[in-house]
Amino acid sequence: MMDGMSSSVIPRKRRDPVLIGLWISLVLVALIWLAPVVFILFTSLKSESEIFSSAAFALPSDFQWSNFSVAWAKGNFNQTFVNSSVITVIKVPLGLLISAMAAYALAQIPTGWNKLLLVFVLFGAMIPFQVMLAPLFTLVNSMGLIDTYPGIILPYLAFGVPYQVFILHGFFRAVPKELTEAALIDGASHFTIFRRIFLPVSLPVLSALLILDFVATWNEFAMALVLLQDKNMWNLPLGLMSYQGQFSNNYGQLNAAIVMTVLPATIVYLIFQRYFVSGLTSGAVKG
Amino acid sequence: MTNMDLFQTPRGQAIVLMAPALAVYSLFAIWPMIDVVILSFQDWNGIRENRDWVGLQNYHHILYNDPVFWVAFRNTVIWTILSVVFPPLLGLLLALGLNQRLIGRAPLRAIYYLPVIIAPIAVATMWRWMYDPFFGLFTQMLTDMGLSRWIVDWLGDKEVALYSIFVAYVWQSVGFSMVLFLAGLQSVDKSLIDAAHIDGANRREIFKHVTLPALRPTITIVLVLSTISSLKAFDIVYGMTGGGPAQSTQMLALWAFTQSMQIFDYGRGSAVSVVLLAITLVIVVPYMRWSQRREEEAR
């Protein structure tokens, strides 16, 4: 929209050589950026002998789909896929709900403590959980929850809260207080206002956070490494790591295992692309 | 106060709404952080009933008797400096380019952002295979170009391994900075740029006097976020080298984990954690103050 206005002010040069050079270099760098993905994809479809005889970026001559089925079976993907799915499907919506509830209360119900509580919560967004892996293990272990779904979901929820509250609080605060006050006068409780007014208006932000959190939870490795010790409770990243350790002598199958681990998040990304940008930036840049 | 009262006052409703998030956050995020500080003054192997207080012994050990700690410290500093310079710089360049009206702008952005959503552990696995000294991508390409004397054992050479991992990290993290800069560029006043055009300013002058000042808050945010995420470097190092060869790619976050969870010395591991925590706080606290001030000014 802005561009339309500006082009009427300044006569646009027909072909700007600087822009053409820029375009060419952006495309070249993009090819480099894409190369690892293409390399992995091609290797995953090649037979072992073809990997050693053909050029790195040569198309597979004969698609070895069996790499995928063999890697799936060897890597115990049945189990790790179910574990990752269960953890993600429970954690992501539940985390968003509790974060949204807290963000609403912090933004719209004055209690005198809100500012302090907000700083307390935001603090967590900046602290690397990697420094607390050992005490986290000790805590979860003392509750007898090592190798259980709750044992991993509860810490995931805890470390998801700060960022989501930060984004949602910023969004809820922008809603005029008069709206809430009018509804309160009409006899609505804050629970009703939250459910009937704030949840519906924040759907775009919630979807952005949902997708970001889906990817983050799906990809999480460090906490799972500490909290899920039993092979049968591993998530996909743990499964891939162990696969690499055990079966790295068959490159085709190893690459098939990588592709299968990465694929769900990639598909989600490609479908919901625009939400990623809005989710990431709504809080961080526009503040 | 009965249950009914609690649900009826605004204060009570606020408590009910905040309780789940605050409870789970306090227990599983804040408590471990306090516990790591406590543990750093204790001697514990993770199994024994009692944790014994040992004062500053753990800190004394890691600072004076643990050569790996200083390697990890040095690597963390190098890694952080590199991560604050290269991914943001590349991200800014890409964002400036992709902010122009170009054909295929959307797919280009998508390509650059794609590695961000790939699991770091999968990135590690991918790049480990690409760095394979015999059949990997880099070795193959250098051989094809007749440059086989440049081939080194990318992840097995003590001098090279850290930088090999860093290249993979750049590949993964540039898209993140790029997206933040692209968003920041939306806040640059278009009419100012047009006015500068009319006044005959060239591209460099416009960048220096219009775009760059408008980007200043974004730059701060990107730099702080890059610093924080670089301190967390764990997955990618664990997956690519596990800290080897001969601890040459060891980092503070990974060394803390190794000490506690693999050597079962929780005290020393926690002391390493506290050092990392302290470094993080030195960066985070001023940033939080700054952003809060900025927010209050914006109101």
Tell me about this structure.
The complex is a heterodimer of chains A (about 290) and B (about 300). The two termini of chain A are about 25 Å apart. Chain A is built from 14 helices and no strands. Chain A folds into 2 domains: about 1-65, no CATH class; about 75-285, MetI-like fold (Orthogonal Bundle). The radius of gyration of chain A is 24 Å and the shape is globular. With about 290 residues, chain A is an all-alpha fold. Chain B is mostly helical. Chain B has 13 helices and 2 strands; from the N terminus they run ααββααααααααααα. Chain B has helices at about 5-10, 10-40, 55-65, 65-100, 105-115, 120-130, 135-145, 160-185, 190-200, 205-230, 235-240, 250-260, 265-299, and strands spanning about 40-45, 50-55. Chain B has a two-stranded antiparallel sheet with strand order 1-2. Chain B is globular, with a radius of gyration of 24 Å.
Write the layout of secondary structure elements.
The complex is a heterodimer of chains A (287) and B (299).
Chain A: H1 2-9, H2 17-44, H3 48-53, H4 66-74, H5 77-108, H6 114-126, H7 133-142, H8 149-173, H9 177-185, H10 190-201, H11 203-219, H12 222-227, H13 236-247, H14 251-284
Helix pairs in contact in A: 2-14, 4-14, 5-8, 5-10, 5-11, 6-8, 8-11, 8-14, 11-14, 13-14
Chain B: H1 3-8, H2 10-39, E1 42-43, E2 52-53, H3 57-65, H4 67-98, H5 105-117, H6 120-130, H7 137-144, H8 161-185, H9 190-198, H10 203-231, H11 235-240, H12 252-262, H13 266-298
Antiparallel strand pairs in B: 1-2
Helix pairs in contact in B: 2-13, 3-4, 3-13, 4-8, 4-10, 5-8, 6-8, 8-10, 9-10, 10-13, 12-13
